[in-house]
């Protein structure tokens, strides 16, 4: 499979802050990748490098075969949605919709019209007076109606109400199926978006801590709950990412295949083992200080 985006040993230093620390991962063509992690993990930094708006301090980035920075043919293939989009003061929606197709050769007026109506974006209000959610809606209209081969969505949901988010998912999935493209999507609303992703890249403290097919990631992650001594015994040799205790009970979230012996012992000790959700997995990596010191190798269970 061809990789549309390749990030190779990328480091980005802002003064004393190392926002990205030797980050490597690839985004296969026409895949839908969830870029996840805690505040400050480095998601926006890596996305703006992919979008050609910033350059790494060291390392290499290839998008559609080129370094995207100031490379016009590559930039023309990218649609980048983030929350800091600025518009001229007197702009209203129709100004944006008139200009956008000049930058997007695959522009779909039908998708734009459907989104504008579904999001209920007011046509006459100046863009600078729109609400937070309405501003996000305008950015999403640009991001999706562009039908860019490479679509980068950085927290596109800010301020969007629950109905708007569900509507956005429906249009996004339908249009992605009809017009396949490579999508990188960063969000903190993990449960809501998990079904969209075929791959997930989890970052923490500027590093990639997990890069896997989403099914594989959750099949290999587990949550054990039971009495503290029992869970402690069972997790003795396992890779535990985070634990919490309440009274005499413990819950541990971990990653890695569990053998049949461990599962039998769990039954004996009345420890419940369930598959972790993507949200539990991301939360566990974010709570684990050791995880960002290594990148997990994914093994099938
Ligand atoms: N221009 C900058 N100057 C200094 N530090 C920066 C700059 N841009 C980002 N950082 C720092 O780099 C780190 C990564 O920031 P980034 O915005 O990539 O995180 P994020 O994962 O997108 O977070 P969030 O989920 O909160 O949006 C943070 O510690 C941030 O403070």
TrEMBL record:
Gene3D superfamilies on file: P-loop containing nucleotide triphosphate hydrolases
Iron-sulfur as UniProt keyword: no
Alphabetical list of Pfam families matching this protein: ABC_tran (PF00005)
Alphabetized GO MF terms: ATP binding; ATP hydrolysis activity
Superkingdom of origin: Bacteria
Domain ABC transporter span(s) in chain numbering: 5-230
Keywords: ATP-binding, Nucleotide-binding
Coiled coil spans: none
InterPro entries with a match to the protein in the record: AAA+_ATPase, ABC_transporter-like_ATP-bd, P-loop_NTPase
Protein name (Swiss-Prot/TrEMBL): ABC transporter ATP-binding protein
Organism: Mycetocola zhadangensis
